[in-house]
User: What shape does this take?
Amino acid sequence: MALLPIIFFLCHCLISCYLLWGHFHYLTLSIFPSTSSTIPQADGGQATRLLPPQLSQTKTTAKCTFTPSSTLDTMPGPTYSQHALTLPSYPRGSHLITSDITSQLSAPLKGVKVGLLHLFLQHTSCAMSLNENYDSDVRKDMTDSLDKIVVEDKAGKGIYRHDAEGSDDMPAHIKSSLIGASVSIPITDGKLALGTWQGIWFLEFRDGKHRRKVLATIQGERT
Assistant: This one.
């Protein structure tokens, strides 16, 4: 019976030593990770144990590449330019103005490999559009159709509140909003990339002739 406390004490020491060894071994693996570890067995052999993913990861070195600022300054980028254009005086109706635009922008368009031309009409009683470039009857039909959609109050029946500038004025504002005041056209190798049957239209909705202004913005990559 006197040996029981001694045996119990010895067993306690052995268990404590085993736990301390396991804790020390775990800390060692945390500091020096590897993909596997060996565990002593009771029969004198060894068993291999795979470590958790967080312990089996190896350190890697990230490689960063920096571009010198001088190189960035010389790298090609998009260019921008604006040009104020004035259209010829056109009577009321729909008109094809592709040649008017390209003739005034021939120099700025030259050298643009890939880009975009934006045309903005700076008025509220006319419009711009992209449409048929061959048959002039299309333009006449467009003018007639718009006149039927938005009628004038020539008889003075009070259809419109805004009538101080003539019976054609308020309908012109409405048509301008319906059609729009701008168009955008792609540029390819210095030329407008219009479709085979596409052309740039100018639609004048007022009676009489006016000098209309267009602001052209060119952006793109130059050769």
